[in-house]
Amino acid sequence: MTSSVELIGSVGDLPRHEVERLMMSATGRSRTEVIVGVDLSDEQRARFAAAVRRRRTGEPLQYIEGSVPFGEVVLSVDPRVLVPRPETEQLFELAVALLADRSPELIVDLCTGSGALAIALARAFPRATVHATELSADAADVASVNAAANDAVVAVHVGDLFAPLPSEIRGAVDLLVANPPYVATSEFAGLPAEVREHEPAMALIAGDDGTEIIRRIGAEAPRWLRPGGIVICEIGETQAAAAAAAFGDGEAEVRDDLAGRPRFVVWRHTPAGRVDSRS
Ligand SMILES: C[S@@+](CC[C@H](N)C(=O)[O-])C[C@H]1O[C@@H](n2cnc3c(N)ncnc32)[C@H](O)[C@@H]1O
Questions:
Q1: Ligand 1 near 116 CB (within 6 A)
Q2: According to a count of CB atoms within 10 Å of the terminal CB, is the N or C end of the chain lower?
């Protein structure tokens, strides 16, 4: 029998913490167990060797592990979807903080990918109806599976931004969130190889300056939100001015991420002459 300690020590070309995670994933054991030492079956050794080979090609650790925690939920991830990022978890926390004193009835997540925001919000606001849209049918499948696995009721629609949403929710949405693609075409080549070569390009690229999808969301959001409703959209750190200007009548505000970079536009729908009794 080979011990986990021996095999972890034999992989010198990858960061130690990653090798430990690959061993945990291959064996289903805790970090403490694998660093103290567990005997490995032939199957576990083969799984570990395959995982190390994949990581050496630059494949994201989360695809190899097959899942990632996001807020209170755990999401399956694979190359059909972007790996949810910590900034997006911050968007979720911001949404919960901003909506804490009301009970949103209708939530929409555009560009849902793995379903991260929609599922976490459905769990945080169990009385809300949650719709999610996604252009990639493959990614939408991942979101649907993740919703079921997390006991979250999310209606996942395949299509372009707002197009697949049911028309009856127009003008009634309390909270609209989005982490859309926001990388400029010219910036794509400069992304780390791990991202560029393994994550879906359609999750990242959005036209010449990266704001194409954000601007489309800004233009159409007022038609879907109820008066007083809120949009929270993740943006690139150089896009604050363009993103804030993308929305119409209402109050736009830019919020920073934990590193102090302007990464979220919060927009409140306050159409002139409309009184909102719920906000
Ligand atoms: C940056 S990823 C975000 C995924 C997920 N919301 C997250 O935060 O991890 C953007 C997602 O938008 C999808 N997408 C791109 N263009 C879209 C469009 N026009 N309409 C709907 N979804 C789109 C991509 O397929 C991708 O899954």
A1: yes
A2: N
